[in-house]
Design goal:
With about 100 residues, chain A is mainly alpha-helical. Chain A contains 3 helices and 3 strands, in the order ααβαββ. Chain B has 3 domains: about 300 residues, no CATH class; about 100 residues, no CATH class; about 60 residues, Arc Repressor Mutant, subunit A (Orthogonal Bundle), CATH 1.10.10. Classes of the chains: A mainly alpha (about 100), B alpha+beta (about 475).
């Protein structure tokens, strides 16, 4: 289903949900601003959607090539001490992070 | 499984309802490559934490993934072995925040996976549909370090990224399994296939094979799917069976007591033998998949796929058929076990060297569970020949076999070293006669028909000969002496 121009395509609540998924904390003013900006973006998408592109194959990628592969040959690894020295916290050769309880998603 | 699955109304279920368990499995297998999926760090189990790391597996700014050719080849092998269609595919970002992935997304395949629409045949002959088998990267490992006191506020976690970026194939089966036992057979067969084609070592205990089970129940005869629960943390075939049985029971209890099933992710706890709720569908993650802009599409040429197909080794199903043909009198479970242990080639070779099939298979199944070591097909055939000729008893043969497994060599030499020379019939006769004379009372009871005394005399003979005598020959001799 297509919307007419000027009709709202994204609600404020949807925008807040997207922000929460991206771990962004937005003020009320920001939420209003981004909702209307995202709405404009979707207007543009709708313009593209309105075109008759039946005859064109979908473009998955900007480059007209596929299958860029690398041989399965081991290469250099990073020095652990050097890497961990740049982490905020480290312990026992590992990155130390705030407690993670429960399963990975 | 379909998200539109209907909840079965528990209140409407009569007490005598018979229930059917419905299981669909998602299996993750680490691919046996030398390096990671998108970078050149080694793909190896174990090792000091954070020693198999590079800019790509740490998600450092500016680093770019490049796809490992071998991982693609192994994925295609799996696809072919599972009768899938190999198709052009693209990688996608699965976005979530969790420290096991430093990029804050996992590269996977989403709407265009490499392998689709296949099937796996169970040893029973039943075919289970495979929806897809796609490539993705593994995550790092996190360990929680408790801080004591209030657990939810104290402590911290440690992260090791050695596993981050290791290539995985995720094999998604249709919900066509109908019991815990079928699910076990499916995983066991799938593991055998993965090992046979060289795609994975299949070690559940090292986490290179991981299984998530979707379990639901429904009244027998219903063609709708019940609401499912996904069970995680199943780390062995045994716990797979237990977890499914427990979960099906829990759901049936829930439904028969008038409640409904909530769609949930549940965690199997090996210690208490139960599943525990982790999160419900409402809390489920919204991964916002989108095509990975840093990787090009993958479109394996027909020539490459054909080349991989021709080089594919023979699969467990065909190997079972081959062995069953050569050892037709042997139990089918033993045939399957020999193939599962990759002992079928040895068995076939020993049989074609002239070894009696049943005896060969007895050794394979009972005495070679820990591998064949230095044992050759020729010496296994020779050993079986000595047993057939009555030169070795079953107990002696087992001991000779152990020597051959340990250090190789010929069964004749090993038997001689162990002092297992076949007893001369005359020697055995005179020994039995002297024992009869020594134990006159036991002998008369034996002659009166006390069968227990057979064991007594055989035991005496074995003691006197240090196990060299053939138990069967002794029994025959005793019976002929009794007249």
């Amino acid at each position: 289903m297509r919307f007419g121009m000027g009709q709202q395509r994204i609600t404020r609540a949807e925008c807040a949900h997207v922000a929460a998924l991206a771990r962004l904390e937005l003020t009320d003013e920001e939420l209003d601003r981004f909702t209307s900006q995202l709405d404009e973006l979707l207007d543009h998408v709708a313009e593209v959607e309105a075109l008759d592109l039946e005859a064109l194959p979908p473009t998955m990628h900007a480059l007209p090539i596929a299958n860029l592969l690398r041989p399965d040959t081991p290469g250099e690894v990073l020095d652990r001490d050097e890497v961990l020295a740049q982490a905020p916290f480290a312990e026992d050769g590992q990155f130390r992070v705030p407690p993670v309880l429960g399963e990975a998603p | 499984m379909s998200d539109e699955a209907q909840t079965i109304p528990g209140l409407g279920a009569p007490a005598d309802t018979e229930w059917e368990t419905v299981v669909g499995l998602e299996v993750h297998a680490e691919l046996a490559t030398a390096t990671k999926l998108f970078s050149a760090s080694p793909n190896r189990f174990g090792g000091e934490p954070n020693t198999h790391i590079d800019p790509v597996s740490l998600g450092l700014p500016g680093s770019l993934p490049v796809l490992n050719e071998k991982a693609v080849e192994l994925a295609i092998r799996v696809g072919l072995a599972l009768n899938c269609r190999i198709q052009p595919s693209v990688f996608a970002r699965k976005n979530y925040f969790y420290p096991d992935m430093p990029k804050d997304f996992q590269i996977s395949q989403y709407d265009q996976p490499i392998n689709v629409d296949g099937w796996l045949e169970l040893p029973s002959g039943k075919r289970v549909g495979i929806e897809r088998a796609h490539l993705e990267e593994d995550t790092g490992k996190t360990v929680h370090i408790g801080g004591g006191g209030r657990i939810h506020e104290a402590g911290y976690s440690l992260v090791d990224y050695n596993r981050a970026g290791v290539p995985l194939i995720e094999i998604v089966g249709h919900p066509e399994l109908r019991s815990a036992e079928e699910a076990r057979q499916y995983v066991s067969e799938l593991r055998s296939i993965l090992v046979a084609v060289g795609a994975s070592d299949g070690k559940m205990e090292e986490g290179s094979l991981r299984v998530d089970c979707n379990v639901s129940v429904r009244p027998v005869g219903s063609d709708r799917l019940g609401t499912r629960c996904e069970i995680k943390n199943v780390n062995s075939l045994r716990s797979l069976g237990r977890a499914i049985e427990y979960e099906a029971r829990r759901q049936i209890d829930q439904l028969t007591s008038g409640q409904t099933i909530e769609q949930q992710t549940r965690h199997w706890n090996e210690d208490d033998g139960r599943t525990h709720a982790l999160r419900s569908k409402e809390e489920d993650y919204d991964y916002r998949y989108f095509p990975e802009p840093d990787l090009l599409p993958l479109d394996p040429s027909t020539e490459w796929v054909e080349q991989i197909c021709h080089a594919l080794p023979s699969l467990p199903r065909d190997r079972r058929l081959g062995l069953a043909e050569a050892a037709s009198s042997v139990d089918i479970d033993h045939i399957a076990l020999a193939v599962e242990r990759s002992m079928d080639e040895l068995a076939l070779a020993a049989i074609s060297e002239g070894g009696a099939a049943e005896r060969v298979m007895t050794h394979i199944v009972q005495n070679l569970a820990d591998g064949a070591g230095e044992l050759t097909a020729e010496s296994l055939a020779g050993l079986v020949g000595m047993e057939e000729a009555g030169d070795l008893t079953a107990t002696q043969a087992k001991k000779v076999l152990a020597v051959l497994v340990e250090g190789g060599g010929s069964p004749q030499d090993a038997a001689q070293t162990l002092g297992f020379e076949a007893m001369d019939t005359g020697e055995l006769e005179s020994l039995v006669d002297s024992l009869i004379a020594q134990h006159a009372e036991e002998w008369s009871r034996f002659c009166e028909g006390d069968a227990k005394l057979t064991g007594f005399f055989v035991g005496q003979v074995m003691k006197a000969t240090q196990g060299r005598a053939d138990g069967k020959a002794v029994t025959q001799l005793l019976n002929s002496r009794r007249g």
